[in-house]
């Protein structure tokens, strides 16, 4: 029997962050991941942005999670020897003089000041439709998620064990203080399985939210992300930009759709003055929750079975900080924030099979 500290199931953004936290603390781990081309983490544009939404409010816990993610991904680049983290300003054009004035006022507000790079009251970028100027935000950027997940995968292969196959639920033996999977014994198993159903946590409300993006080739050369209605984020190759994303709870079918492409192109044409050629389209399902907060905690009857999931539309910014929260809770008994603890759903959704 091989004895390790943890088994991690799933190596998307969630499982990768947990693996980094555990390996850098010297823990022994086995990761089991059946990689999928359309997993949320592989199709994400990787954007992180602390001021979002139609009303442009500071995102939940921005003052904590944004400084944390910066150190986390910079360190992940050091340990893996790969480049995937690209801090970059984000530009949001104004649509009216009122909006321009509102942001001029907000720029002195200590809540927003750390995130504002500059406010433009007249057009600033020739290829952006910004006749009223716009807001340039800092502490934004993008993570090349495919490169990140692949780099962490290579690092796990060197430092630990990776099984590139599905975990078979029926082969997992769960005891009070440990789990056994084939010839591996671990003190805990952590499910980071995104939207895929698993036997222990299928009672939790993880709602798949379909998203599609398009990749375009265009001569846009600025070193910024532009975001209003859609975002335009650098792709893997120079001259390629990812445009996203759609949000569709109704469409449960795998695959790309012409409707999504039309929606994205219409919004891109409203935002930008560019000629472009669409070269590909991608789709995936985000693991969302009704209250838009992640899911952390142990199974109601099996303390050795843990979940780390529900990162919805914000896996890039939330998984670094909350993987640290998870590990401090498992290793040092640091209480979980009630907003992320799965206890909040237990009384609503959990019924014991006994
Ligand atoms: C179109 C689109 C655009 C997005 N853009 C952004 C963005 O710009 N910024 C941002 O922050 N977020 C974005 N997201 C959301 C982000 O992708 C998710 O928050 C994040 O990827 C969730 O990661 P995860 O690891 O929980 O899940 P997943 O990425 O789904 O990873 C789960 C992994 O577990 C594996 N797995 C599951 N069950 C098993 C099993 N039984 N055995 C073995 N392996 C298993 C799967 O194969 C997969 O590899 C976007 C999502 C989509 C779909």
From TrEMBL:
Record's keyword annotation contains Cytoplasm: yes
EC number: 1.-.-.-
Domain FAD dependent oxidoreductase: 5-326
Listed InterPro entries: FAD-dep_OxRdtase, FAD/NAD-bd_sf
This protein's UniProt keywords: Cytoplasm, FAD, Flavoprotein, Methyltransferase, Multifunctional enzyme, Oxidoreductase, S-adenosyl-L-methionine, Transferase, tRNA processing
Residues of the signal peptide: none
UniProt-listed Pfam families: DAO
GO MF assignments: oxidoreductase activity
UniProt name for this protein: NAD(P)/FAD-dependent oxidoreductase
Biological classification of the source: Bacteria, Pseudomonadati, Bacteroidota, Cytophagia, Cytophagales
């Amino acid at each position: 029997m091989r004895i390790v500290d943890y088994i991690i199931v799933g190596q998307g953004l969630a499982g990768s962050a947990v693996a980094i936290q555990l390996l850098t603390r010297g823990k022994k781990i086995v990761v089991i991941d059946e990689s999928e081309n359309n997993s949320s983490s592989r199709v994400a544009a990787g954007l992180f942005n602390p001021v979002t939404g139609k009303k442009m409010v500071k995102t939940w816990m921005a003052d904590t999670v944004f400084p944390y993610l910066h150190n986390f991904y910079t360190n992940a680049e050091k340990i893996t020897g790969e480049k995937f983290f690209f801090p970059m300003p984000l530009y949001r054009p104004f649509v009216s003089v009122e909006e321009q004035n509102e942001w001029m006022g907000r720029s002195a507000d200590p809540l927003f000041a750390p995130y504002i790079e500059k406010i433009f009251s007249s057009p600033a970028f020739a290829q952006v439709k910004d006749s009223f100027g716009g807001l340039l935000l800092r502490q934004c950027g993008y993570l090349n998620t495919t490169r990140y997940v692949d780099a962490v995968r290579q690092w796990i292969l060197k430092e630990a064990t990776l099984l590139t196959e599905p975990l078979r639920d029926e082969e997992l033996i769960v005891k009070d203080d440990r789990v056994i999977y084939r010839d591996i014994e671990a003190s805990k198993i952590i499910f980071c399985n995104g939207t895929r159903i698993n036997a222990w946590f299928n009672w939790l409300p993880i709602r798949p939210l379909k998203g599609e993006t398009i990749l375009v080739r265009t001569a846009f050369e600025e070193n910024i992300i532009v975001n209003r209605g859609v975002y335009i984020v650098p792709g893997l190759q120079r001259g390629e930009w990812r445009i996203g994303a759609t949000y569709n709870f109704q469409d449960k079918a795998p695959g790309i759709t012409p409707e999504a492409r039309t929606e994205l192109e219409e919004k891109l044409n409203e935002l930008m003055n560019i000629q472009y050629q669409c070269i590909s389209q991608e789709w995936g399902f985000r693991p969302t929750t009704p209250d838009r907060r992640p899911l952390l905690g142990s199974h109601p009857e099996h303390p050795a079975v843990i979940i780390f999931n529900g990162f919805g539309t914000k896996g890039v910014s939330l998984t670094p900080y909350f993987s640290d929260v998870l590990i401090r809770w498992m290793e040092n008994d640091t209480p979980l924030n009630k907003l992320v603890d799965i206890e909040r759903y237990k009384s609503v959704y959990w019924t014991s099979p006994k």
